[in-house]
């Protein structure tokens, strides 16, 4: 059976690298755990690092965090649906919001539960996912500040999540200015400008982060050590906290081109024939993992001498050429993964999860 490993020491070293960087810049931060897909074993590893704030987009995952350590501040990081508000208020100490009606419902529920619920108001800064338009912010806050059982603790934004708009110093300065305007207008203190996600870290590394930005929400760089501007591993961090191992369940020499009349496969794909491959053969390995678990385009083979040919629902097909390393049935093949690949694997109940 295929299995995924989490390397505890490498995760710890990535965490310590980020903690030191944020402390140096006077920035508070929380860890985004949604990649872990509620895996209790891996969530416990996060908490054991000494993390005091965890963010997730699934309420059930936040409930598990509270079960493991009730003292951890939990943050729900997407707009909540109306029917999930009671559960969200129960398990999330903080939530990100951009709809006045939703915040009114949260206020009513927080009153019922006898809680003060903290809110970060999300601001649209160009990527066109969630967020209040800047010219509506003053009127928006005028109505939210009057709601009972609600505490506004920050303005936030998300970039690079939908249309790929990258963070910039100018965009983050604008967000900081919105905060100042609202504080002056209403004589209220808003503690956070929560403008940082993993994609914003390179601005900090290059001393381009505006001083007003004082809160980050970090997932991908913690787990993959990646600079998302240059798509490379940050010096001093690890890119292989997670590794995937899959077993070879068939190994045979076969023609390099299919034989027979072609039609679309179950994924709707049509094979393109390269006539130069007629009559040629290669060794093909089938692995015990497939599209139900991961999209092959997010896998990075450790052995660069073979290529991924494709996948069906439960099997991954490799071209090993002449098989120079003499792979056999029963051998395992190791992969690193991009973020979306690890997300698929972690969401699959068919792949074992192991802490090293």
TrEMBL record:
Matching InterPro entries: Ala_racemase, Ala_racemase_N, PLP-binding_barrel
Protein's recorded name: Putative amino acid racemase
Species for this entry: Cecembia calidifontis
Keyword Phosphoprotein included in the entry's annotation: no
PANTHER family: ALANINE RACEMASE, LYSINE RACEMASE
Entry keyword set: Isomerase, Pyridoxal phosphate
Gene3D superfamilies found in the cross-reference section: Alanine racemase
Membrane spanning stretches: none
């Amino acid at each position: 059976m295929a299995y995924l490993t989490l390397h505890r020491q490498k995760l710890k070293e990535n965490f310590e690298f980020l903690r030191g960087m944020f402390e140096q810049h006077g920035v508070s931060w929380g860890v985004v755990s949604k990649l872990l897909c509620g895996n209790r074993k891996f969530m416990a590893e996060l908490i054991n690092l000494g993390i005091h704030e965890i963010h997730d987009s699934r309420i059930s995952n936040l409930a598990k965090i509270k079960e493991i350590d009730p003292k951890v501040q939990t943050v729900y990081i997407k707009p909540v649906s109306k029917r999930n508000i009671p559960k969200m208020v129960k398990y999330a100490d903080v939530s990100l919001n951009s709809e006045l009606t939703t915040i009114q419902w949260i206020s009513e529920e927080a009153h019922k539960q006898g809680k003060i619920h903290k809110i970060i108001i999300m601001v649209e800064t160009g990527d066109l996912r969630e967020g209040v338009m800047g010219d509506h912010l003053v009127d928006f806050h005028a109505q939210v500040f009057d709601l009972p059982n609600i505490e506004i603790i920050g303005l936030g934004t998300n970039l690079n999540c939908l249309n790929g708009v990258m963070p910039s110093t100018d965009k983050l300065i604008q967000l900081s200015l919105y905060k100042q305007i609202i504080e002056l207008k209403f004589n209220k203190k808003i503690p956070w400008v929560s403008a940082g996600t993993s994609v914003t870290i390179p601005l900090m590394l290059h001393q381009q982060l505006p001083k007003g930005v004082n809160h980050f929400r970090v997932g991908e760089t913690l787990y993959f050590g990646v600079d998302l501007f240059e798509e490379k591993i940050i010096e001093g961090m690890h890119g292989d906290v997670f590794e995937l191992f899959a077993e070879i369940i068939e190994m045979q020499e076969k023609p390099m081109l299919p034989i027979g009349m072609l039609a679309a496969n179950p994924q709707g794909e049509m094979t393109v024939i390269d006539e130069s491959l007629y009559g040629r053969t290669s060794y093909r390995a089938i692995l015990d993992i497939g599209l139900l678990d991961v999209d092959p385009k997010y896998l990075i083979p450790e052995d660069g001498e073979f290529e991924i040919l494709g996948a069906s629902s439960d099997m991954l097909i490799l071209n090993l050429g002449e098989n120079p390393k003499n792979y056999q049935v029963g051998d395992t093949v190791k992969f690193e993964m991009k973020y979306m690949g690890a997300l698929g694997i972690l969401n699959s109940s068919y792949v074992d999860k192991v802490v090293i």
